Amino acid sequence: MASSGEQSQCSKGHWREVASLSEQHQRRFAQRSLATFSEQSQRVMIWWREVASFSEEMMSQVVCYVSENPFLKQHVRSANITSL
Predict the structure, then answer these.
(1) Which residues of 58-78 are buried (b: 16+ CB within 10 A; e: fewer)?
(2) Cβ-count burial of 26 within 10 angstroms (0-12 exposed, 13-18 middle, 19+ buried)?
(3) Three-state DSSP string of the chain
């Protein structure tokens, strides 16, 4: 997970597309991502389930975590979130 130090260096703007999605689409995005990430790591799966709430604080952590993790970045991009 991103530490508070890393979080402060990240821009929430990268996650604007997810933030603007309807609640239904947010849930669909999170569920689709969970299905992919659960095959890789139980820890990532648990983290991603928390992110499904899409609070402003969590979105900051998502941007940091994804930007520093090529595997996550690849799959977020494949889920049509292309601004990362």
Answers:
(1) bbbbbbbbbbeeeebeebbee
(2) middle
(3) CCCHHHHCCCCHHHHHHHHHCCHHHHHHHHHHHHHHHCCCCHHHHHHHHHHCCCCHHHHHHHHHHHHCCHHHHHHHHHCCCCCC
Residue 71 token pair? 């595997």
Quote the tokens at residue 17: 């597309």
Q: In this structure, are residues 65 and 1 in contact, taking their beta carbons and an 8 Å threshold?
A: yes
The residue whose two tokens read 């799966």 is 45
Q: For residue 9, how many other CB atoms are within 10 A of its CB?
A: 10
Residue-wise pLDDT tens digits, 20-76: 566 666 666 666 665 555 455 555 545 555 555 556 665 666 666 666 666 666 655
